[in-house]
Amino acid sequence: PAPRTVLLTGAAGGLGTLMRGLLPAYGYDLRLLDLRPVDGEPAALTVDLADRAALREAVRGVDAVLHLAGISLESTFDKILKANIEGVHHLYEAVREEGVPRVVFASSNHAVGFTPRPVGDDPLIPVGTPRRPDTFYGLSKSFGEDLAQFYWDKHGIETVSVRIGSCFLEPANVRMLSVWMSPGDGARLFHAALTAPHVKHSVVYGSSANTRLWWDLGPARALGYEPQDDSEQYAEKLIAEHGELDPANPDHAHLGGHFCTNPPLWPH
Ligand code: NAI
Question: How many angstroms is it from 71 CA to the middle of ligand 1?
């Protein structure tokens, strides 16, 4: 049966806010969790991923977890270790202890951020490309993907790891013309990842069907994802503002963009 009750972690964040708006239309009953209170949602659970007892209670009885919580930019190794590395371990332990069958994990393109982006007729980047994290943040997503594989092999817990490009209302720069995922496509992809049968541990890229796409959406489509959007409508304006990508510029040469050279740091 299709999962109905889903724990959404990171519900106060940007993507969490978009998804708690869009996913109920697919019939989900969302249980919300975040470190911070969630605006307008007094029933949301205020829980730190460090709190294993509270996490165990939070996952009790759900059909699946959509795991978005964590630090979403570069930070110090110590902060990434706690929120993203220990945090994802605690989440999977709670899931294992409570017998939750499925997790959808918000991985990131930054797990493969140092992969050269395709130029000209180069083939699209496959999900099987060797991981090349571009930050401690990207390393934590690479760890999360390995952890998900391990919990499938060892404990039979299924995961779809979604290497999200950039999910915002609109693409904000020329790189995002390639990696953008519209919120509507994000909801379509998470819905597919929550409901597709027999996913074992699957890794997919998460973006819209962009004209300037860099990676292979085949594995996402194999889950039943049918993207409806393309960033191309924003191309003319963004290129007029910022210019075309220059392959000689290291910030433009890799999937991870400026995370490879000058990652934004979380405020201390
Ligand atoms: P965000 O930073 O807006 O939201 C993350 C949420 O996680 C925040 O509300 C924060 O309070 C919560 N959180 C952080 N540490 C926590 C902890 N220890 N315990 C409980 N909650 C904690 O990030 P955004 O953009 O919403 O991203 C969501 C997820 O998707 C993140 O895992 C991010 O790495 C991933 N992702 C997002 C992309 C995007 O385009 N928005 C691109 C690639 C990956």
Answer: 5
Tell me how far apart the alpha carbons of residues 49 and 65 are, in angstroms, rounded to a whole number: 13
Closest CA to 115 of 128, 100, 102, 101: 128
Dist CA 213 CA 208 (whole Å): 8
H helical segments located in the chain: 14-22, 52-59, 77-80, 87-98, 136-155, 176-179, 183-195, 218-222, 235-242, 250-253
26 is catalytic: no
Which amino acid, 82? K
Q: Which is the catalytic residue, given 137, 205, 225, 234?
A: 137
pLDDT tens digits, residue range 87-123? 999 999 999 999 999 999 999 999 999 999 999 999 9
Of all protein residues, whose CA lies closest to atom 32 belonging to ligand 1?
A: 68
**Alpha-carbon gap, residue 235 to 212, rounded angstroms:** 10
- Model-level ipTM above the cut of 0.85: yes
Is ligand 1 within 6 A of the CB of residue 15?
Answer: yes
What is the distance between the alpha carbons of residues 80 and 87, in angstroms, rounded to a whole number?
A: 9
Does residue 88 have its Cβ closer than 6 Å to ligand 1? no
User: Where do the domains of the chain lie, and which CATH numbers do they carry?
Assistant: 5-260 (3.40.50.720)
Prediction pTM value: 0.97
| The predicted structure's pLDDT at residue 18 | 98
Distance 87 CA to ligand 1 centre (A): 12
69 lines ligand 1 (CB under 6 A): yes
